[in-house]
């Protein structure tokens, strides 16, 4: 049985996309446009992590390469999300 933990890249990307939808309906979307591109790019890298792990699923000889690539994609995604969060925070501070 496959266990999906809460920090799995697909869950994290789903939560980020739900946050973007909530921003849209709260009316803040126009004020924070600059940082949202970084958040969406982070989601793409989390999807890339999931696709890499699924693509190497049946190849035990490539398991180390798959996990190394997964770590690299996740580090890039978290950096992009942090940059986006800082840009959104600075945009919201200017909006007041």
Summarize the structure in words.
It is a single chain. The chain is mainly α and 96 residues long. The chain has a domain at 30-95. It contains three helices and no strands. The chain has helices spanning 9-26, 33-55, 63-95. The longest helix has 33 residues, at 63-95. It is elongated, with a radius of gyration of 16 Å. The relative contact order is 0.17. The mean pLDDT is 82. The chain crosses the membrane at residues 6-23, 35-57, 63-89. Keywords: Membrane, Transmembrane, Transmembrane helix.
Give the CA-based shape: elongated
What's the rounded overall pLDDT mean?
82
Q: How large is the share of residues in beta strands?
A: under 5%
Biggest β-sheet description: none
How many strand elements? Answer: 0
Reading the helices and strands in chain order gives HHH
Gap between N and C termini, in Å?
50 Å
Tally of helical runs: 3
Low-confidence stretches: none
Helix percentage range: over 70%
State the secondary-structure class.
mainly alpha
Q: Over the alpha carbons, how many angstroms does the gyration radius reach?
A: 16 Å
What is the gist of this entry?
With 96 residues, the chain is mainly α.
């Amino acid at each position: 049985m496959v266990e999906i933990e809460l920090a799995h890249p697909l869950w994290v990307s789903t939560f980020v996309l739900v946050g973007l939808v909530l921003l849209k309906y709260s009316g803040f979307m126009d004020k924070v446009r600059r940082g949202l591109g970084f958040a969406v790019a982070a989601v793409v890298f989390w999807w890339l992590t999931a696709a890499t792990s699924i693509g190497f699923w049946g190849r035990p000889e490539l398991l180390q390469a798959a996990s190394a690539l997964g770590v690299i994609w996740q580090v890039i995604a978290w950096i992009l999300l942090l940059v986006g969060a800082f840009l959104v925070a600075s945009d919201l501070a200017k909006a007041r």
